[in-house]
Write a structure and sequence with these properties.
CATH topology of the largest domain: Rossmann fold
CATH class of the largest domain: Alpha Beta
Helix content: 25-40%
Number of domains: 2
Strand order of the largest sheet: 8-7-6-9-10-11-12
Structural class: alpha/beta
Radius of gyration: 23 Å
Order of helices and strands: HEHEHEHEHEHHEHEEHEHEHEHEH
CATH architecture of the largest domain: 3-Layer(aba) Sandwich
Length: 344
């Protein structure tokens, strides 16, 4: 058999296809990946789009993207870029698809995207496990004062076992309040209950009973916060949730509460929250997200009880591969004239 006929390519060798075939056009679709992704994710893109290009590091700016995108039909972008009206107005005419390598899209001007008639897709519903795992790590790390323990060891100040050293809190019997009971919130709820915690939640609407998974809906906002030993912020950033955790709501939390944020930094009023940490009304915080990332408010780095991480909620190789697979599937659908699964 002729060697040209054999191929590992899932679409088959181009030489065997009609040049007018939509599959040929699909394979040759210019895809611009705007920053380095894990090699395993790049392989996912190039398995279907062999000509997918990665923007060099020295061009990874909004202006660099717009220049390099001329001729591309699809652009892969992460949350590090704010896609505002000016971006969409300057977007080359060749670009038909903006593929967000993220589940969140609060950094995108959706109205401007619609005006430009570009199709926006993202990666929802596949990050819940990875983010929920990290949420539990932050809950446990903050409750057991893990960062303080690491600092004690590394500084050489540890003098040995003491029955009063770094006393923390056990999880069993504690009430975890989840603000935002979407896919991530429900996965955290399952994990928390395995630790013996009781879960209460606030949402725009109560979930159907069969989807609550043992969690308890609290309709009254103040009653919800007053009952939280640990508060997890897992809601999307919207005008309604912006600075949700303000001075008034912080006062409703019990003395010594723990707060964990795996959503967006803007859900917290930083000044009010830092005051609560300094006066010990809030005993500890686990933070993976911040206002104005990556310009973290430096007070969080010097305030006792804060366990800070650099926005790594979805940073597992499994999640990164699944994100790429989700985008590739939808880009294929769009280019073949089909409806994508995750259009915004």
């Amino acid at each position: 058999m002729n060697g040209d006929i054999l191929s590992d390519d899932p679409l088959g060798p181009i030489s065997m296809l009609d040049e007018a075939s939509p599959l040929v056009a699909l394979k040759r679709c210019p895809i611009l990946i705007t920053e380095e992704l894990p090699p395993e994710a790049i392989k996912v893109f190039r398995r279907v789009f062999p000509e997918a290009a990665i923007l060099p590091e020295n061009q990874q700016t909004v202006s660099g993207i717009l220049e390099a995108a001329d001729g591309a039909r699809a652009i892969i972008l992460t949350v590090k870029y704010r896609l505002d009206e000016a971006f969409f107005q300057a977007l080359p005419k060749s670009v038909e698809i903006i593929a967000l390598y993220s589940s969140g899209f609060d950094h995108v001007d959706l109205a401007a995207a619609r005006e430009r008639r570009v199709t926006l897709i993202n990666t929802p519903n596949i990050l819940a496990d990875s983010v929920a795992d990290l949420a539990m790590a932050l809950i446990l790390g903050a409750a057991r004062r893990v960062l303080e323990g690491v600092d004690l060891i590394r500084s050489g100040r540890w003098a040995g076992f003491s029955p009063t050293l770094l006393l923390g809190k056990e999880m069993r019997g504690r009430v975890l309040g989840i603000f935002g009971m979407g896919n991530i919130g429900r996965e955290v709820s399952t994990r928390a209950q395995a630790f013996g915690m009781n879960v209460a939640y606030r949402n725009r609407t109560q979930l159907p009973r069969e989807n609550e998974g043992g969690a308890r809906y609290v309709a009254d906002e103040r009653a919800f916060l007053e009952g939280c030993d640990i508060l997890l912020l897992a809601a999307p950033l919207t005008p309604e949730t912006h600075k949700f955790l303000n001075a008034e709501r912080i006062r409703w939390l019990p003395q010594g509460a723990i707060v964990v944020n795996i959503s967006r930094g803007e859900l917290i009023d930083d000044d009010a929250f830092l005051d609560a940490l300094l006066n010990r009304h809030v005993a500890a915080a686990g933070l993976d997200v911040y206002t104005n990332e990556p310009a973290v408010d430096q007070r969080y780095l010097t305030t006792p009880g804060v366990l800070p991480l650099p926005h790594i909620g979805s940073a597992t190789i499994e999640a990164r591969i699944a994100m790429a697979e989700t985008l590739v599937d939808d880009i294929e659908r769009i280019l073949l004239g089909e409806r994508p699964s995750n259009a915004l």
